[in-house]
Amino acid sequence: MNAIINIGLREKKRLLRTYSIIVAIVVVGFVVRLYVLPELSLPFHLLMALTSLVLVVLLWESFYGINKLLNRLLPYERSMSLRIVVQMLLGIAVALFVRYILKVFGEPYVPFKIEGFFKLSTYVLYIFAAVALNLGFVADYFIGRWKDSIRLAERLEREKTQVQFDNLKNQLNPHFLFNALSSLNSLIYEDQALASQFLQQLSKVYRYLLQHQATGQVSLATELEFIANYTNLLQTRFGDGLRFNFDIRKDDLEMGVVPVSLQVLIENAIKHNVLNKANPLTITIETASGYLCVCNNLQPKNIIDASNRQGLQNLRSLYAYLSAKPMRVEETSTSFTVKLPLL
């Protein structure tokens, strides 16, 4: 409903702006004719002004209608050059038709003889007006696209900032830290050597997070070093309930990824799926065809804590900002896969 109202308001503003310009043109023409042709009577000048108003409105609305029709039948996206040529030719044809109507029904009543050169110049003027006005429609299209691209860039930049902020909150998730410290506390009494190793890995995880929280891109090799420590922490916590498989092509190690994007996807898989020794969650991380793929077997939880279901959408928006290739999400009855384009 609001969209319809907004369209109506924009149309009213367009009409007001357009007809204000048309009236201004007619008034200027009226004043010029009074000065150039003072011998003609005032009623005739007024009749000429009224005729000019009708003709200009007719031309404008014809050109506007042609533009709207071509937007449907021959949009710029289909063929830019053909669209512009067709619009110009149709505009010129309409202008010449209006000029011909004026010749047949108007010139016989003009109280002076119209010379050949002046008559020819009016045809040229009508053609010029048709080209100029239709170029205005073309320019309006490109200006609109330019404004749209600016708005899109601003929106993607805001979304990028929001994603980075959300990632940082997830990375420093107090639940993760609490669980890690609880696991460390248990290990201290059970296996001090493993506890020391666990603490070293935890420190490496947080060092990576702090080092790259403001970095837009890291190499896949760097991200995998971080993930190795992160997955070790998770496996210490979940034991046989969580398994990881890695299949990374060597040629892809120097490709780029968004920092901690793997951590986000692993955390997403753990958050949404049941995992225990009887039903292990298997997460496969591999590269193929220019994508980094994270796939897990599907065994969804009935209740999901602390999920706003925006993580994947925000990650999709961020990669749309960074790559021409889209992030892909594929779900079957048995698996869930996210494919991130390598940068």
In terms of quaternary structure, the protein is single chain
Topology pattern, helix = H, strand = E: HHHHHHEHEEHEEHEE
* Number of discrete helical segments: 9
Structural class: alpha+beta
Mean pLDDT: 81
Highest CATH level, the class of the largest domain: Alpha Beta
| Tally of DSSP β-strands | 7
Give a quick account of the main beta sheet: strands, pairing sense, barrel closure: 5 strands, mixed
**CATH topology value of the largest domain:** Heat Shock Protein 90
Low-confidence stretches: none
Radius of gyration: 34 Å
Overall domain count:
2
Q: Proportion of β residues?
A: 5-15%
- The residue fraction in helices comes out at 55-70%
Topology:
Blueprint: H1 2-36, H2 42-73, H3 80-105, H4 116-171, H5 174-190, H6 192-212, E1 218-219, H7 220-238, E2 242-247, E3 256-257, H8 261-272, E4 281-288, E5 291-297, H9 311-322, E6 328-331, E7 335-341
Parallel strand pairs: 2-4
Antiparallel strand pairs: 1-3, 4-5, 5-7, 6-7
Helix pairs in contact: 1-2, 2-3, 2-4, 3-4, 4-9, 5-6, 6-7
